[in-house]
Predict the structure.
Amino acid sequence: MTTLSEAAVLDALRAVKDPDLHKDIVALNFVKSVNIDGTR
């Protein structure tokens, strides 16, 4: 089983671009926090 980390989630979210601003949602501070629950 692969361990999920905050860094891995943020890296994946960097691929999501805002269509109007042409930047990723992490750089635009749209992601305020990442919570990982080991059971989900």
